[in-house]
Amino acid sequence: MAQSPAVQTPFDIALSDRAKAGLPSAVRKIFRASQRSGIISFANGAPFLGALPFGRLAEDARRAIADQGSVALQYGSSAGIPQLRRHVVDIMALEGITAHPDQVIVTAGSQQALNMAAHATINPGDVVFAEGPSYAGGMAVFTSHEAEIVHVPSDSEGLIPAELERLIAETRAAGRTPKVLYTIPNFQNPGGVNLSSQRRLEVGHICRNNGMLLFEDNPYGLLGFDGQIMPALQPDFPDITFYFGSFSKMFAPGLRLGWVMAPASIHEHLINIAETAALNPAVFNQLLMSAYLDDPAWKETLDVYRGIYKAKFQALVETLETVMPAGTSWNKPTGGFYLWVKVPDGIDTEELVYEAIERGIVYVPGTAFYTNGTGRSELRLSFCLPSIDEIRKGAAILGELFTEALAS
Ligand code: PMP
To answer: What is the value of pTM for the model shown?
Structure first.
């Protein structure tokens, strides 16, 4: 295979402080390995697409061009097309959010929305509190804006309010600004945990009392295995909440569509920021997404997905029970894509991931989800993408690897 040419520059490019702060993580290397053909990947948070109505989508795509080509292929509104924003309002209503389409900004995935919100609110040195562990891509956004991440210890009900209060006080005492709480309240990535109803209120009040913003990142909320939906935090704290939604997990990430709803005073600023990066989200993709949502059958497809993910989760846990060395534990998510596993001392998940790749499987070591160097005795297993057979086979390989590592 031809090598890509190494381009030499005659001088060292002077990187901005922002770019230096956002150095790519070791995880990239692992994700690259997960693209290898034949590997069983527990690494990717990529949805299983096999149950989508491809024929219908192809027809919608054809129609978007045939009937509305001069709209589909033109520049569009920077906040997104109105019909998709109306669908977003209906989707958020499922979680108890009352909104007007004009409050919604459609983005190229919630990742772009997170970056816009960080751009709008974070000054270098500000502190962003995040669950420990938390979504690596979210933390990468905040560190690239030169924020410091402070992890809030979590348990089976999500992040612990008393710990948040303690850490805010410590931050103030150190002369730093507590700015944002970044939380993934439903089927958290990577911990699989739900923030309990009681704690939703407690953490919201703590943020408000401390003049902090609440970033509610919710790509998995509609993916409860049994269709259960938790109410959002936003309705109780509309003055401080940025709510982030995504079509990536409930539909497909290839269209790159998500959204943000921000406190009213920030809305126009966010639109300005969005325009500097992308002018507007892709109109063709939005028309396709909108056409998909026009047919109420999308909810039935979502039900099919919930069943598929539940079965995959069960296959994973059943296998782990029989193959993992004693002392290994995991949580019991009730939805989403992820299982969070803790292994006994003597197993270093970061070191062993390369051996795992040699043996044909890949996972994400726990260290990827903390910015403080912890996590070597933890790992995230995504059960969304591999088939049930692959899950059984892959988990058996993992069990063997960890059992050998403990014995050696
Ligand atoms: N937030 C969380 C918690 C995620 O897990 C992801 C994707 N893995 C994103 C945001 C970004 O998703 P997207 O840009 O595809 O909407």
So the answer is: 0.95
